Amino acid sequence: MVTVAMLEALGLHRRTVSRRCRPGGPWSSLALGIVKLGNGPPTRDDHRHASLLHAGPGAVLTGLDALALHGLRNAPAPFGPIHVLVPHARRRAGAGVALLERTHRLPDPEPGRWPLAPIPRAVCDFARRSRDRNAVRTVVAEVVQRGRCTVSELVEELERGSSRGTAIVRDVLREISDGVRSVAEAEARALVLRSGLTAPLWNPRLEDDEGHLIAFPDAWFDDVGLAWEIDSVEYHLSPADYARTVRRRSSMMAKGVVVMQTLPSDLRTRPRDVLAELHRCHEQAALLPTPALTAVPAEP
């Protein structure tokens, strides 16, 4: 991937470059002034290279493309123009291949093949432009769960930048700070908030009197000793994951815990029924002796 100016500096006339980029020729024009030295269909990497060439020295990839190159597995696949950060003084249009964002806070790129914005910046740049709450939840949950960055680092990045477009990601960070670790749990949390019940702990560590681990329930109502399991065979990626869920439930029930299990799809399609069942299970748990367990809150 080269610019026409680079080819001219090597002695090629602009007309020669134009002729070689015609349909059926050996090269192809990817954007204004950007030439691919090949005629195959352009890949996402080709568009990334073209965007960086067009953006000029010091440009940094951010948003979904940066997150994909950072190795996130669950983030939405990059699409549309490549999101590129450039120095604020640089005035240049995107040429149809890039979304060029001028910034006074141009980050130092992460070391590697590509100039990538650090993960907190890439997450926030994506989230500011997204209106898909579940996509933002998925991205934030993955980077926090995998230890790629902390909630406090994301909050700090948000505070350093513009507040425009941050409402969704701020809501999601509040969910994560409460211990929520998945889209399904976030939907369950939203349901609990309008239930009138005492807010549960999300993903706490349940221990017995001797400090032995019993389970990590998705939600734990400490006032009555009720565990709420959101994940199920439809949510897990393998039979082994589901087997762990079954064993976890058995461990809690052996300690006298009332366990309610909900399909993630029911949270969206049957929220009233789920809420009614949650109230019934809460009432049932309140009639039984409180299990002798200690709940240690999840770290944000």
Task: Report on the architecture of this protein.
The protein has 300 residues and is α+β, with helices and mostly antiparallel strands. 42% of the residues lie in helices and 15% in strands. The protein is built from twelve helices and 13 strands. The chain has helices at residues 4-9, 14-20, 44-55, 63-69, 119-129, 133-145, 151-160, 167-177, 183-193, 239-254, 264-269, 271-286; strands spanning 2-3, 28-31, 34-36, 60-61, 82-87, 98-103, 201-202, 205-207, 213-215, 219-221, 226-229, 258-261, 294-296. The strands form four sheets. A four-stranded mixed beta sheet has the order 7-10-11-12, sandwiched between helices. Strands 1-3-2 form a three-stranded antiparallel beta sheet, with helices on both faces. A three-stranded mixed beta sheet has the order 4-5-6. It is elongated, with a radius of gyration of 25 Å. This is Transcriptional regulator, AbiEi antitoxin, Type IV TA system.
List keywords for this structure.
three-stranded antiparallel sheet, four-stranded mixed sheet, single chain, elongated, about 300 residues, 3 domains, Endonuclease, Chain A
Q: Please tell me how large the radius of gyration is.
A: 25 Å
Unreliable spans: 233-239
From the spread of the alpha carbons, the general shape counts as elongated
* SSE string: EHHEEHEHEEHHHHHEEEEEHEHHE
Euclidean distance between termini CA atoms: 43 Å
> What structural class should be given to the helix and strand makeup?
alpha+beta
Largest sheet composition: 4 strands, mixed
* Count of helix runs: 12
Strand neighbour order, sheet with most strands:
7-10-11-12
Protein name: Transcriptional regulator, AbiEi antitoxin, Type IV TA system
